[in-house]
């Protein structure tokens, strides 16, 4: 094992000196596990591939300025993890974003009691925000939403009941969904930033 570590350290030194063949060896050694980690969290092969490529392009482009304190793999893993977090931030409006954050909480070793408090706080705040957003809807839009979501009525049934056109019903539902997505997106971003602060404070993001 010690020999392997020294070999990889020597390989990194060759990369720092601009040896493209050595860089290709680094890529073949580490690209697959880095991709697997990223894909596990974002569940998109295309985007996981892009993030993996970005990690290695940065490694090559900034090789002269990079100082690695532990191992090359740990460095690449940390950079990939940070890029994964940024990816989740950019896609915060997507429903699965909170699930991805929960997985990262688990992976980074945040104590269960904090995970549970964090998750409960997210759920309570999301529910409250959605309820407030719905309460503030125009009367007809709110009625359309309740008939669709709570009574389970279809667009034609709602149109017939309220004596409005099906297109009006569709427009109302589309606007409600957009408003709710925006509300959830704003909150997800705030919780994401809080999550980053927790990780940073605990030195989980230190390379």
TrEMBL record:
<dbReference type="GO" id="GO:0003677">
    <property type="term" value="F:DNA binding"/>
</dbReference>
<dbReference type="InterPro" id="IPR013249">
    <property type="entry name" value="RNA_pol_sigma70_r4_t2"/>
</dbReference>
<keyword id="KW-0812">Transmembrane</keyword>
<dbReference type="InterPro" id="IPR013325">
    <property type="entry name" value="RNA_pol_sigma_r2"/>
</dbReference>
<feature type="transmembrane region" description="Helical">
    <location>
        <begin position="187"/>
        <end position="206"/>
    </location>
</feature>
<dbReference type="InterPro" id="IPR007627">
    <property type="entry name" value="RNA_pol_sigma70_r2"/>
</dbReference>
<keyword id="KW-0805">Transcription regulation</keyword>
<keyword id="KW-1133">Transmembrane helix</keyword>
<dbReference type="InterPro" id="IPR014284">
    <property type="entry name" value="RNA_pol_sigma-70_dom"/>
</dbReference>
<dbReference type="InterPro" id="IPR039425">
    <property type="entry name" value="RNA_pol_sigma-70-like"/>
</dbReference>
<comment type="similarity">
    <text>Belongs to the sigma-70 factor family. ECF subfamily.</text>
</comment>
<dbReference type="Pfam" id="PF08281">
    <property type="entry name" value="Sigma70_r4_2"/>
</dbReference>
<keyword id="KW-0804">Transcription</keyword>
<feature type="domain" description="RNA polymerase sigma-70 region 2">
    <location>
        <begin position="27"/>
        <end position="92"/>
    </location>
</feature>
<dbReference type="InterPro" id="IPR013324">
    <property type="entry name" value="RNA_pol_sigma_r3/r4-like"/>
</dbReference>
<dbReference type="GO" id="GO:0016987">
    <property type="term" value="F:sigma factor activity"/>
</dbReference>
<dbReference type="InterPro" id="IPR036388">
    <property type="entry name" value="WH-like_DNA-bd_sf"/>
</dbReference>
<feature type="domain" description="RNA polymerase sigma factor 70 region 4 type 2">
    <location>
        <begin position="132"/>
        <end position="180"/>
    </location>
</feature>
<keyword id="KW-0472">Membrane</keyword>
<protein>
    <submittedName>
        <fullName>RNA polymerase sigma-70 factor, ECF subfamily</fullName>
    </submittedName>
</protein>
<dbReference type="Pfam" id="PF04542">
    <property type="entry name" value="Sigma70_r2"/>
</dbReference>
<keyword id="KW-0731">Sigma factor</keyword>
<dbReference type="GO" id="GO:0006352">
    <property type="term" value="P:DNA-templated transcription initiation"/>
</dbReference>
């Amino acid at each position: 094992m010690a020999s392997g570590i020294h070999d990889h350290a020597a390989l990194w030194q060759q990369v720092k000196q601009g040896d493209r063949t050595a860089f290709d060896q680094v890529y073949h050694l580490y690209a697959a596990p880095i991709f697997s980690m990223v894909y596990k969290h974002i569940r998109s092969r295309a985007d996981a591939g892009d993030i993996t490529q970005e990690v290695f392009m940065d490694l090559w482009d900034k090789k002269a300025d990079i100082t690695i304190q532990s191992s090359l793999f740990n460095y690449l893993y940390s950079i990939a993890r940070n890029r994964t977090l940024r990816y989740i931030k950019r896609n915060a409006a997507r429903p699965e974003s909170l699930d991805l954050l929960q997985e990262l909480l688990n992976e980074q070793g945040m104590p269960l009691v904090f995970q549970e408090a964090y998750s409960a706080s997210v759920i309570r705040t999301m529910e409250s925000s959605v309820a407030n957003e719905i309460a503030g809807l125009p009367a007809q839009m709110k009625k359309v939403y309740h008939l669709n979501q709570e009574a389970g009525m279809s667009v034609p049934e709602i149109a017939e009941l309220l004596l409005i056109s099906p297109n009006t019903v569709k427009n109302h539902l589309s606007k409600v969904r957009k408003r709710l997505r925006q509300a959830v997106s704003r909150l997800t971003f705030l919780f994401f930033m809080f999550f980053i602060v927790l990780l940073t404070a605990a030195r989980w993001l230190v390379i």
